[in-house]
Amino acid sequence: MRRRRLRRVRNRRAVLVIAVCAIASAPLAAQAAQSPTPPGAASAGPPASLVVALGLRDPSLDAGVVRGGEVVLARGFEVELARLLARRLGARVERFVELRPAVRLVAGGAPSWQLALGGLEPSPRVRAAGALSDPYLTTDMAVVLRRHLPRPRSIADLRGHVLCAVRRSNEARTIATVVRPKAPPLLATGLDRLREQLRTGACDVALVPAVDTGRFLRGHRSELGPAVGRIPNGRGVVIAVARGGGLGVTAVNAALQRMRNDGTLGRLARAWLGLDPASLRVLR
Amino acid sequence: MRRVRLAIPAAVGACALVTVAPALGGTETRHGEVWFVRDGEPVAVSRTAPALPGLLRALLAGPTRVERAKGLRSAIPAGTDVRELTIARRIVTVDLGGRFAAGRDEESLTARVGQLVRTFRAVPGVAGVRIRVEGGVPVGLFPGYDLRRTIRAPLVSQSAPSLRDTQQLLADLGFMAQAGVTGRPGDETSVAVLAFEKWTGMPRDGVLGAAVLEALARATRPEPVRREPGKRVELLLDRQLALAIVNDRVERVFHISSGSDGRTPSGSFHVYRKERLSWSVPFSVWMPWASYFTGGIAFHEYSYVPAYPASHGCVRMMARDAPLMYAFATTGTPVDVLRGRA
Questions:
Q1: What is the helix (H) or strand (E) element at residue B196, kind and residue range?
Q2: Higher pLDDT residue, A130 or A209?
Q3: Tell me, what's the ipTM?
Q4: Who has the most CB within 10 Å: A177, B11, B51, B125?
Q5: Does A72 contact B136 at a Cβ distance shorter than 8 Å?
Q6: Which residues, 6+ apart, have CB-to-CB distance to A103 below 8 Å?
Q7: Per the CB < 8 Å rule, is B136 touching A65?
């Protein structure tokens, strides 16, 4: 009787120890699962399959369902770009993972991906990571007119008009520093209010992020004038190429250039963003 | 194989019922609301369904034929399946199949989350909703919603602007002065609405009703009839409006009342005389802020400015507007009096 009780106590202890061990080792196991060696990292040639990190910002650029760090049902401009780019590199996208936050890119250590597309601009911090591609998307500002306004040929032509932009945005700063209009600009609380100001004629010219211009105009083309050009800011969105991931940034740039030349990038932009920002005339 | 396929949803359903039952009164039949959309606006319809899973099934089934005939639609794609439904601490967690995220229409994607949240939040005791798709967290798929967090309220419809927003729209369009944007109702707003109704050809009652709000939501700034540089005034007799124009841009639209029975002559004139307080000899009445543009016909302030032509030939203006026109129409300003739009 006593022996049976002792055995039961021992069994309970054993179960408890196993449970504690399992709980303690779970984070390590998860960590191990989350940071695998990128496929192809060890091989000498370019990898046959790629792991691509996404920023997951909006449905047009990149979005999806995050399940244990992996992104399923991924869609958007950057998702399609990654797939086509992989094909040009003779590989395929094995899986998408989440890049959150984007600054993790430069946090050090071996990343669990080979390519990262997450609205990365080559700021000094991101540039420190090294392997950044040429821009695949412009961050210029599109110039959208109200209806019936004559087309400007230069930035100087904009100065006599009432300009508007979203408050505290790069576009608002560009109005103040580059355009320098005669009348004070109108600053909106968001893109919806900005569209309203342009529609009602409260302002004549709106400066909108070129990437958002297609969506800004979508469904409102009869109420607004056209996007007539863009003011360049010399920057763009780039791809981060992981060091030691088996991919060279030169190959990525060459593939991007081919996609630009054969119109693939433009088609992708029109399909997902509604407008190819690169197709807008540069205003100087 | 087929038996297995049938058994999985049944088991999931049973699990869901078991999990939900203690918190929401078991599997008893209950009256609830499911939410659909009509012309982009959320609309509730009542359903009798066994507890929360029943309401969810009713929502996913979409509107009935009768409801569809009344214009109700569901933004949730047909064939969306439920993987799991649980409730804990008054938070409903619903895991749906991948079809829930199908399509690229941002309005539809936002609306379907709104439908789910409204339907669950209408159930007494439910404090929030967590939405999962294919067992994961949707990120960036549904504009306006951060589904990493519990959703406690749907996004407020953009088509229900506040009075201040509406006044701002009227000011942006040029139907009232910026100073009139106060957020408080008043005659200035009514007059601006009246001018807007005249411009768009709506019934002239000055009431900010649903039809006016709908028209305002798509309205663009009035355009002048003629294209000429410089500062000028267009008087539209058919619409009973005066447009103050600078370089082909309509700066302000004024509600006016011109001469009855066509007593205001059409043609192109210039302001030739201005009197801060003018005395009308034939009618023995003071006419403040008078700007004469042909013979004895002038823009001036008057106490009664109806929505139709009522004067002896002059152009009556509201007390608030007359000084603005007086300041704008300086001597020599062209005035085009037009019977109809060219």
A1: helix B187-200
A2: A209
A3: 0.77
A4: B51
A5: yes
A6: A125
A7: yes
